[in-house]
Amino acid sequence: MADSGAVMGLIGAIGGALVGGAAGVYGPLLLKARERRQVEADRATERLALQEDRARELADEKLLTLSVARVRTRLWYDFLVQTVTRVSTGEPVDIQTFHTEGSRLAGEAMDICYGLARLRMAGADGGDPNGVLRALRNASEVVYTALRNEELTDAPTPAAVRDALDTAASARSWFRLTIDRLVEEQYRPN
């Protein structure tokens, strides 16, 4: 019996050594695996936070671009209407100044509207949402021609000028509605 007690003790010692050895090897491995998973989870959380920040920045950039586009097209349109009004009341307008200022306003409006297309905004495909740029360019040309031919001086506003300005106003109205819709879509709660 003494031998069986010794054998049992030996088996117990060997079993204990195996369990202790396994715990010594697998314990740190399990801890390392848990740490790796935690690091991967932290990195995924950081990536998600960065993506959300970028999405917010892009949304803010889109809103700013929409607001500026609305203002720039309005400035261009107002310039045309004010020029026609000034000339029809007898105030002299230098055609070169008209051309220079009109070109500047047109360039600013076109740049920002093409920025809408760069931001891949729905409804802004091609950079000329609702044809507002085309209508304003046409109105600018019609007003310029009327100024050059002195059709606005001491006379009622020609039908071609009124029609061109009305078309531009209509295109701007649709443009404003499009911008309002885009703003709503941009900031609609998910």
Report a brief summary of the structure.
The protein has helices spanning 2-88, 95-118, 132-148, 159-187. It is mainly alpha-helical and 190 residues long.
Features:
rod-shaped; 4 helices; 190 residues; mainly alpha; 0% strand; 83% helix; Four Helix Bundle (Hemerythrin (Met), subunit A)
What would you note in describing this structure?
- This protein is mainly α.
- It has a domain at 57-187: Four Helix Bundle (Hemerythrin (Met), subunit A), CATH 1.20.120.
- Helices cover 83% and strands 0% of the residues.
- Helix 1 packs antiparallel against helix 4 (159-187) and helix 3 runs antiparallel to helix 4.
- It is rod-shaped.
- 23% of the residues are buried.
Secondary structure elements and their pairing?
Blueprint: H1 2-88, H2 95-118, H3 132-148, H4 159-187
Helix pairs in contact: 1-2, 1-3, 1-4, 2-3, 3-4
